[in-house]
């Protein structure tokens, strides 16, 4: 069951654990910030302006250096994408583990309640009608 976030909407416990874990690691926070910026339109606009100024005004023959620069940037950005994917996979696994435990607990609780209800129904039947209750499919050992 989701728990309240810090002053915000309800958040899954696995989400809260991931937020807390990321908060304490500088490198992870830095990677989050870079990934967030690289995935924004501001990143695109800034690069378009820088490349246009560089190619038009600063370099006579920009292609060799531009190719090198863009290739290096692609290497680093792809690394940040993979870091984000790994983090997402870890979060999804943590959430799946948490959900599994919660569902198993819910199943055990429901099974116990069903058995208790069945026992109470038998007891009521015996007291009201004075005889044993008819065996239910749950009691059938087959």
Automatic annotation (TrEMBL):
InterPro entries: DUF1003. The chain crosses the membrane at residues 34-57, 63-83. The keyword Transmembrane applies. The keyword Transmembrane applies. Keywords: Membrane, Transmembrane, Transmembrane helix. It comes from the Bacteria. This is DUF1003 domain-containing protein.
């Amino acid at each position: 069951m989701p728990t309240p976030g810090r002053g915000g909407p309800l958040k899954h416990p696995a989400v809260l654990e991931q937020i807390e874990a990321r908060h304490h690691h500088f490198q992870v926070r830095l990677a989050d910030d870079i990934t967030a910026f690289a995935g924004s339109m501001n990143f695109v606009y800034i690069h378009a302006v820088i490349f246009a100024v560089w190619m038009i005004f600063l370099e006579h023959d920009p292609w060799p250096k531009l190719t090198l620069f863009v290739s290096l940037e692609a290497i680093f950005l792809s690394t940040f994408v993979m870091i984000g994917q790994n983090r997402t996979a870890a979060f999804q696994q943590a959430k799946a583990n948490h959900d599994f435990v919660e569902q198993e607990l819910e199943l055990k609780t429901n099974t116990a309640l069903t058995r208790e209800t069945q026992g109470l129904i038998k007891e009521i039947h015996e007291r009201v009608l004075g005889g044993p209750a008819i065996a239910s499919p749950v009691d059938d050992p087959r």
